[in-house]
Specification:
about 40% helix, two-stranded antiparallel ribbon, alpha+beta, flat, about 15% strand, 2 strands, about 45 residues
């Protein structure tokens, strides 16, 4: 996606959208891990 495409494709950060984005980040194992209580935490090196 280009920068222009990213600017034009803005999604509202409602709870469901944010959860989907965080789940994707956790599934790629980048920067975040899922905790037991449904929360997320930064991954430590």
């Amino acid at each position: 996606m280009t920068l222009r495409g990213a600017i034009l494709h803005k999604e509202p950060l409602i709870r469901g959208t944010l959860k989907n984005k965080m789940d994707a980040r956790v599934s790629f194992s980048r920067s975040f891990v899922a905790c037991d209580d449904g929360r997320y935490a930064h991954r430590t090196a």
